[in-house]
Design a protein that fits this description.
Rossmann fold; 10 helices
Length: 262
């Protein structure tokens, strides 16, 4: 995956969320139950199956996997995000926290039935990660890539997108929504994968939308003019789109499942 040129050097992806953990935990959406249903149906996995949730972050998707009775290695390189997952999920049966990167998970050969990456694959779409996933997956193991992608057919999301493009300098370089089938296909055997889409809705008050912005890696510094312009733009969004004290963020949630390319 080729990064677009930017005027500022990109921060190490493993460090980008260290100062955003609280906002991430409080204001990021989960994933539709229907997605978990389809994932388990497609992979044929049930309670007790072992999953590596790579780039697990604060454990949003890990929690949903655990709720289905799966045993989960939550692989996360960022110490602050990992600590949030451990605080939330440390007492859950089947949860194991792993301090490692996607390219070197430290897991044993052929030790997992499924590798998942929820809202994370765009940070490690590279040959080293593909090789590592092939190493840790058992024979017949599957790969699942998941994103909550903002639904740009919604007028509110169109306006929010324009705000980000105008005032968040890092947005173009770190935006997962620019990934295409070519970026994903190289990770799947013969470039083939099953794609599923699910509607997802997340209702937020004004503080929640500002918090959702602050949780993003591309959010500009809060003491700078771009951040102030973004918050002013969010105020206008509320004036135009609020239903009472909240607005609804619409997502087109994507699930890609297939055999790993080896």
């Amino acid at each position: 995956m080729t990064e677009p040129e930017t005027s500022e050097p990109m921060r190490d992806p493993t460090e980008r969320f260290s100062d955003r953990v609280a906002a991430y935990v409080a204001h990021r959406p989960g994933y539709p139950d229907a997605l978990l249903d389809r994932l388990l149906e497609t992979t044929g996995l049930g309670a007790g199956a072992v999953v590596a949730d790579v780039g697990a972050g604060s454990g949003i998707f890990t929690r949903q996997l655990l709720a289905r009775g799966l045993r989960v290695f939550a692989v996360e390189p960022n110490a602050d995000m990992r600590a949030a997952a451990e605080a939330a999920l440390g007492g859950e049966p089947g949860f194991t926290s792993v301090a490692a990167r996607a390219e070197s998970t430290t897991l044993a050969d052929a030790s997992v039935a499924l590798v998942t990456a929820a809202q994370a694959f765009h940070w490690f779409a590279n040959d080293a990660a593909r090789t590592e996933f092939g190493r840790i997956l058992e024979a017949g193991g599957r790969l699942a890539l998941i994103w909550n992608r903002r639904d740009l057919t919604q007028s509110l999301q169109k306006a929010y997108e324009e705000l980000l493009r105008r005032h968040a300098a890092d947005y173009a370089a770190s935006n997962h929504m620019r990934l295409d089938a070519g970026d994903l296909g190289g990770f799947f055997a013969a470039g083939r994968m099953d794609e599923f889409r699910f509607p997802n809705r997340h209702r937020l008050d004004f503080a929640g939308v500002v918090g959702r912005l602050s949780s993003a890696s591309y959010c500009p510094p809060e003491d700078g003019p771009d951040y102030r312009d973004l918050v002013a733009g969010i105020e206008r969004l509320f004036a135009d789109h609020a239903d009472g004290e909240t607005i609804e963020f619409a997502y087109d949630t994507r699930l890609y499942v297939g055999d790993i390319a080896r």
